[in-house]
Every structure is written in C-alpha cells, then in structure tokens.
Design brief:
The protein has 641 residues and is an alpha/beta fold. The protein is built from 24 helices and 15 strands.
C-alpha cells in the first residue's frame, strides 16, 4: 500500500502542481500516523496503577504476572519502534530527494524519526528502563509488640538483696568424720566399698560411694535407719542409684545451712542468656548448680508441702523470675488467692501484667465463685486461641506469634499477638473443698489442652491428700515440687515415691522433672524485695486497663423462656447466617467474627436457640446447628417474619 502511494505521488509531481503534491504528502503522513498507533498497541503497554499501602501489616509482597508481561511487552514494542523508525527514515530520505528536484524546502526541525540513531536508541532505552509501576520493597518492618510500652524498663538486680554469702563452706573435719562413720557402718554389716567422695551443697552434702562387685543394693537400702542412727543426723536420704552414675548416694544435712538468694540465681549467666519462653529460677542443686528451667516446657507445675515449709516463697521466686525477663506485652498473670493475703501485693501491676474478668474491681481473685467464673473464662480464651491457630495454620503459640510478627496474619480478621498467660492458684485444696466439680472441670480442661496456646498452670496446696491431688490431676502435671511433708504417704501422693518426709525444711525440696527426682534448695526472697520490684514496675506507664478475659458462660448464657421473636437483635439474621455457614454454634465465634462483646453474643445465641437455629447448651462443646443450608435458613426467617 505504501509503495503504491509513493509511486502515485512521484507520478503526480510531473502532472500536477506542487500544492497537489503537498496535499498527497499530508494524506500519506496521516495514514502512517494511524498505522503507527495501531502497531504499538498502547492498551497493552499501559499498566493500571494500583495504590499499595505497605504500612498496613496485612499487605503482602507480590509480583503480579501482568506486571512481568508489561516489561516483556515494553521490550518488544521498543524493538518494533526501532524497526518502524528505520522504515520511516528511508521514506524521509526519498522525500528529501524529491524536494531537491522540485526546488521545495522542508522544515529544518527534525522530527523524532529523523533524529540520529544514537539519540533515538538512547530515548527508547530510557523509556524502556523507566517502567510505569513501582517495584514493592523486598521486606517489611517486623511487628514489635513491645512498642506499645516502648519506655518500659526491666527491674534491675539492685532492687534485690544478698542474704548470707554465696560461698558454701563446710568443715573439712566434719566431712571426714561422716565418711568414716559411713564406712564403718557398712563394714559392720559386711558391705565393702572402695571409693567415697563428698559434694557440699547449700543445705545437704552428698556422699557418693561405689560398693565392690557382688554386693546387693537392696542390703544397703535396708541400712538407712542404721546409718542415720550412727551419724546422729536429723534426716538422711539415700539415692540408689544416683541417676547417670554407677554409685550410691547418701544426702546428709549440713550443720550450717546456707541461704540461697534469688539475686544469685537471677544474676547467673544461665538465667540471663537462655532462650526459654518462660524462664524460672527454682533453686540450686546439691552440686551448687543453678536449676533454671522453662515453665512453657513443663508445661504445668504442682507445688505441695506442709505449712510453713516454703511454698509461698517459692511462688514469689517464680513470679519475680518471670517479671525480670518478660515484657508486659508478652506475659499476663491470673492470680487466684483464696487466702486473700499472699498475692495481694501484685495488684500494683494490674495494668502491666495482670488479667481479669470485665467489670471486676479487684485483679486478685479471692472469692471462690469468682474463681470459678475466671477459670471458665480462661477455657473460653483457650478455645478462642485454638480457633485463631486453626485459621492461621499453626500448631502452637510460638509459630502463631512468629507468623503475626512477620505480618502474615490480618488483624482485621481477629488475629492479634498472643501473650503467655500464667495461672497461679495459691491454695488449691480450699478451692476444691468449696467449689468442688465446678472448679475441677475447667482446671482439668486447661491442664489437658492449654499448653499449645500459651496458658500454663501453677497450682499450690498444703493438703497433699488423695482427694485433692487425684491421679487425673497428676497425669496432667508431670512436673511436681514437694516441700517437706509429714508422712511418706503424702510424699507418694505428690511424687509417687518417698523422700519428701526426709527433707530438712526451710526451702529444702524435691522436684520431679523429666522423670528424675532432684533435690533443690529454693531461693529466698523477702516480702520487702518483692514490694520493691512491684513498685518499680507499677511506677511506670502501663496499659489503660488490665488484660480482659472473655466473660464466663454462666454469666452470659441464661435462656429466656419468654422471648418474643419481635424483640430479636438487629444482628440476628447476620449471626444466623454466620452460624449456618460455619455449622458451629459457638458464642466465641460470634464474638470474634462480628466483633461483639460476650454479653451481646450470648444474647444472640439465646435468641438463635429460642427460634430453632441452634440446639441447647452443651457446656464447653459448641451447640448443634439445626439448620444445615442457607436456603433452609431463608425459609425459616421468612416464616418468622
């Protein structure tokens, strides 16, 4: 077509006037412009702009396939443009030669297609190197939960005192005398040993000896009372054999006991530089090694012992250990204290570390009925957290929080950073005797299921009887601490073995951890030291209110038999559709998906039950959904008017 037009123009130069030639050139240029527009296909080259807010934690990095195609199209169009410019340059040279023959002058300004090749290629390459879309950044700023209280300062070790001395010294002459008496006692009964060594601990000294081959260990066990008599000791404890060693151990109380300060354990390198989720300093071993463990790995802790043997001091040591390592955004306490005086000092930090029920005045739970409501609320909190973990595709709280920190979870869908929750029940026996099954059921549920969602129990009692510490309870508390008890029966109730009745007292304890029984000296912390730590934290800026737990089912779910269908909630139809779609009659589901308070969600569930959408309450289990499809629901709503 273009060759035909050029030939026609060249023929008309000799026949017609120069005006006719210019007119033909204009027509030719218009045709070329139209062909140029359609050849470049600008619709494919344009990139639709889309505003992206990368500050939103829900935004994720993505490279759409269309943007990649745009780059490819840009390069192809650049190649076509270069080829098209070459063709236009050849036509322009022909026009110049024709103008010279006719004596006409063309404009001196060069159009784009007449620019030198270097300039043309430079302009094309510059357009190709500047795409019309912005490449999103390669990474996001991670979510940091501690920024809510960015000015929070951790307590310093200067708030704690050093009780006694860190150096443990025992009279060398006393050690030799005890060794000699042990050797003579065993020799009198025909038991020969060839190696004896002693390790001095803060409360007791461990004497290790290895009998000669052929000696029955059972004979040595029967000599426990004789050795105690010959040593004139208060109580001795035999370890047959010592775990991990081919030796027998005898623990003999020291004449001078050393007080282990909590400051010593918290200042140790093992406590300061560990990777535990919930590090706690429980005590010091017989070999003077600090016993620092992770509460999240236990996952629950049972503490029992007679009155005045160190349980309250041990609980304070555990709580202070957590306060020294965790930020208020990472940890919350639920304190249940039927005694009403043991844990009351922690009310100062209620806006920092404590959790409670809504509309409750006191953060420390002292009333038995309120304790039951709090435990039921914790079960609801546990169920809500399991729903979040299931939607996020994670198995435990650690994976869930890591996913949320990387901003892979949408807060608009109810996701949030989940702090650990530590439940402390100071006197479990009193709670069981007054509440009975109402308290046992939620505690059993929490002990069985709450570990994965970051809820852990610390239960203490001074009545270690079989009706309080049942076999079902012990099966969910593999880690147990026994202070001095009055009888071997109580020791077996706590630890499934004897030994706790032979303890010295004053913080001397046995702990069953990972299947082993270890003797520890509990660290001492005075009430004044606890008050200093609490006042230091309480003087800082905290959250506007304590961490609020969902309301108890017993407070919210009261079925109204005189319900009038005309008085149903404005969100009734939306709640009914949500329940039918999910096929789960859960009040917590309404609360989380519809962003409602528990009272209103409970009223909606009552109305759904009264109007035949869901079945009756089944305790902790979701209600049965009586309507299976949305079409059936629509017919049901139409009948209700």
């Amino acid at each position: 077509m273009e060759a035909y037009l050029l030939g026609l123009i060249f023929l008309n130069i000799k026949i017609h006037s120069i005006e006719y030639v210019i007119f033909c050139l204009c027509v030719f240029g218009l045709i070329k412009l139209i062909s140029y527009i359609f050849s470049n296909n600008p619709e494919e080259a344009q990139v639709p702009t889309k505003s992206t807010d990368y500050s939103d934690p829900t935004t994720r990095i993505s490279y759409p396939e269309k943007e990649i195609n745009v780059r490819a199209n840009a390069e192809v169009n650049g190649f076509v443009l270069r080829e098209h410019n070459k063709e236009k340059e050849e036509v322009s040279q022909t026009l110049l030669e024709m103008a010279k023959e006719t004596g006409q002058q063309l404009p001196t300004t060069k159009p784009e297609h007449l620019m030198p090749e270097s300039e043309t290629s430079q302009s094309v390459s510059s357009r190709r190197e500047e795409p019309s879309f912005q490449v999103p950044p390669d990474s996001f700023e991670l979510y940091e939960p501690t920024l809510d209280l960015r000015d929070y300062k951790y307590p310093s070790l200067d708030l704690l005192e050093m009780h006694g001395t860190e150096k443990i010294v025992e009279d060398a002459g006393r050690l030799e005398d005890v060794k000699t008496q042990i050797l003579n006692t065993l020799k009198n009964y025909g038991i020969a040993i060839y190696k004896v060594s002693a390790t001095v601990g803060p409360t007791v000294s461990l004497y290790e000896f290895v009998p000669v081959a052929g000696v029955r260990v059972l004979r040595i066990r029967h000599l426990e009372d004789d050795i105690t008599f010959n040593l004139s000791a208060l109580n001795i404890r035999m370890i047959i054999p010592i775990p991990g060693k081919e030796a027998i151990g005898i623990e003999v109380p020291n004449t001078k006991m050393t007080v282990v300060s909590i400051k010593t354990l918290l200042a140790s390198d093992r406590f300061q530089n560990n990777m535990y989720n919930l590090p706690i300093a429980i005590g010091k071993k017989t070999n003077n090694e600090n016993f620092i463990v992770d509460l999240a790995a236990m996952p629950h802790l049972l503490i029992a012992g007679a009155v005045g043997q160190g349980k309250s001091v041990g609980i304070n040591a555990i709580l202070v250990s957590l306060l020294y390592r965790k930020h208020p955004s990472q940890l919350k306490f639920v304190l249940v204290d039927p005694k009403q005086v043991e844990l009351s000092i922690y009310s100062v930090i209620e806006n920092h570390f404590l959790a409670k029920l809504p509309d409750e005045k006191d953060s420390i739970v002292t009333d038995t009925q309120k304790a039951v409501h709090t435990l039921n609320a914790l079960c609801i909190e546990m169920d809500n957290r399991y729903d979040l973990l299931r939607e996020a595709g994670t198995r435990n709280i650690k994976e869930y929080n890591e996913k949320f920190i990387r901003r892979n979870l949408n807060p608009k869908k109810g996701h949030q950073y989940l702090p650990f929750i530590v439940i402390v029940i100071n006197e479990f026996a009193d709670l069981i005797m007054t509440a009975g099954k109402e308290a046992k059921t939620p505690i059993a549920r929490l002990a069985q299921l709450a570990r994965a969602v970051g809820i852990h129990l610390i239960v203490a009692t001074q009545h270690p009887s079989v009706n309080i510490i049942t076999s079902a309870l012990k099966s969910n508390f593999p880690t147990r601490v026994a202070f001095k008890v009055s009888s071997k029966i109580d020791s077996r109730t706590i630890l499934d073995t004897g030994g706790a009745e032979q303890l010295v007292g004053r913080g001397d304890m046995l702990i069953s951890y990972n299947g082993e029984i270890t003797r520890l000296q509990c660290p001492f912390i005075d009430t004044q030291e606890v008050e200093k730590v609490i006042e230091f934290i309480g003087s800082q800026r905290g959250y506007p209110q304590p961490f609020l737990l969902p309301e108890s089912v017993r407070e919210a779910e009261v079925v109204r038999e005189d319900f009038d269908p005309a008085d149903r909630d404005a969100l009734f139809e939306e709640a009914a559709r949500l329940i039918v779609q999910s096929q789960m009659g859960s009040t917590a589901l309404l609360q989380r998906r519809m962003k409602l308070g528990y009272n209103r969600a409970g009223r909606l569930m009552d109305q759904l039950e009264a109007l035949g959408v869901v079945g009756p309450n089944q305790g902790s289990k979701p209600r049965d959904v009586l309507i299976k499809t949305e079409a059936d629901l629509q017919q049901h709503l139409t009948r209700l008017g």
